[in-house]
User: What shape does this take?
Amino acid sequence: MTHERLLVPISPDYASAIGLAVYCFARLEWHAIWCCERIEPGSLNELEDRTAGQVADTLLHLVEGLGGSDEEQDLKDAAADFRALVGTRNNLVHAKPGTSIDGEQALYRHGDQWLLSELASVADAFARCSTRLNRALQGLLDGEKRKPVPNKR
Assistant: This one.
């Protein structure tokens, strides 16, 4: 084992916050994919190699066929939130490394530094949306409880 990764001059807390945010988004994206699969079986194979934006667009399209119950509306709102969060994720994942004014290593997007507090905030937003999609998977979209959704594709 060579440990080159330990030569990267980044604080462990900052690296951990980046990793947690990215993991929370990956979890969110897979909850979205599974929602698509529950609404339209076969979606998983189609979406597993797609971009997060394509997954979000597919989920938004599929939830249009849902009714207006509170659970259905929450899923529609969560799908819209997921679509918005894709942009946040892209800003994080496509950020550029740089040195902050205090000499610390950080990520920058469009000239703005990703602060530790912002990384925590976006990880929380990803986790909240993920929890809402998972609630739909365990309730509204659970195969045992679910009414068929008309196919609008």
